TrEMBL record:
This is Uncharacterized protein. The keyword Glycoprotein does not apply. Keywords: ANK repeat. One of its GO terms (biological process) is negative regulation of actin filament polymerization. Residues 36-46 have a biased composition (Acidic residues). It comes from Loxodonta africana.
Amino acid sequence: MKKRDCAPGSQPSPTPKSLQFVGVLNGEYESSSSEDASDNDSEDGAAEPPRSGSSGSGDDSGGGSDSGMRGPPSGGDAGDSEATAEPQPGAEGRCELSPRLREACAALHRQLSRPRGVARDGGAARLVAQEWFRVSSQRHSQAAPVASMLGAVARLGPELLSHVVNLADGNRNTALHYSVSHGNLAIASLLLDTGVCEVDRQNRAGYSAPMLAALTSVGREEEDMAVVQRLFRMGDINAKASQTGQTALMLAISHGRQDMVAALLACGADVNVQDADGATALMCASEYGRLDAVRLLLAQPGCDPAILDHEGTSALAIALEAEQEEVAALLHAHLSSGQPGPPSPDSPTAMAERGH
């Protein structure tokens, strides 16, 4: 039986990190900063797909070793002062775009209004994309400039707002992917506020923003967790990653994000969904010895610990094979008792577990 997603014992990071996925073919990934990644721009202002990953593969088809969470495009013309979207004083205290960027946005809006849509090599489209990613998608991006650009774009028209908010780079990452990955949840909140953000869009490796959120450590606990919960509720919480079939719940469990496991369950995550190998969240928790997660999962109405994966293996068998003795004892007691959830601390099965 192959490992499901990461090395056992992986612990949550105490601070928000950028997430770079590696080893997509075998489901492995790690937390790392994307600041060191290349920021080269493609012809249409999008970041080039990664040329290599830690496993040595750079397959542009999405079956390679990197999920595409590399640094967003930030160079080129968008970086000069004439194109900047930094807040500038405007009428009635509003922040305005620079004349050059405003002209590009207006030109792009006109292109969007035409039946043929936007030409990929259009200079206006390229400039707007470069500036949008520079403002919204860097590790140190700030909410105020993002709010300014969103407001200015919205005033030009809803079609332009929807286009800009959902712009994707060469690895199919949007600003929402980047803001969640970098832990910039204030920016993620602004994107959700627009009402046009495509929350469930998957990047080249098949990960959506809710999936990335399931792996993110929240900093300002109450504010950030509120954004995460909102993201879970707005998106398809049970969506499967296109390559592995894993859900956000499975990812949170395998990376030891117990707070995210609880949040996902509170938002209605289905505990019985199976991935491409037929594995469930309970099987993942059993394999990695996530005792608290196992308890939470078993307490969910309808949780079925008897489900078998495509190899005919149950969660209990997986726990025994992985030598997760506490988890195996809990699963055995649960199956034997036939209770809807884990046995209470004073029940005979629970006392037997503790050796009484």
